[in-house]
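Thanks for the sequence, V.! I ran ATP-binding protein right away. Repeating your input here for the record:
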Amino acid sequence: MKQSGTLYFFCGKMGAGKSTKSKQLAIDKHAVLLSEDEWLSSLYPNQIVSFEDYLKYSAKLKPLVKKHVQNILSVGTDVVMDFPANTQKLRKWFLDIAAEINASHQLIFLNLTNEQCLHQIAKRRNEEPERTAFDTEAVFINVTKYFEAPEASEGLNILEFSGKE
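Predicted structure:
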């Protein structure tokens, strides 16, 4: 029987560098990269203007993505998901994707301070002006209220980076 691929996913506050790290990891691992932002902007163009919109459309996307990722993993290909795993509930979703098909997983926790993240967000606003409306300190503060750092008790294989690497 062929070995399943490994599911890689990320936890980190807004601006921690999840998208940047996921792109590099996909290259390093020769893995399929799936970006939530790309899927959402393709499927729901110009429909996500608030955090509430994001939550609504992200929830619609998850059942489709879950099956797709399981199919890729089951043929032995690694998958890097640029989808946030920033709450226990979301991490359980990722864990279930892997566990249901006996695939291995790796959670990469980008453990940066609020100051580090806000600095990155300000830099990103300059580099990607189309993100200016969403990449604000107010949105960061709102979104960060929901952030839950991963814990070993969740049954996850956690690799942590503090931003000093």
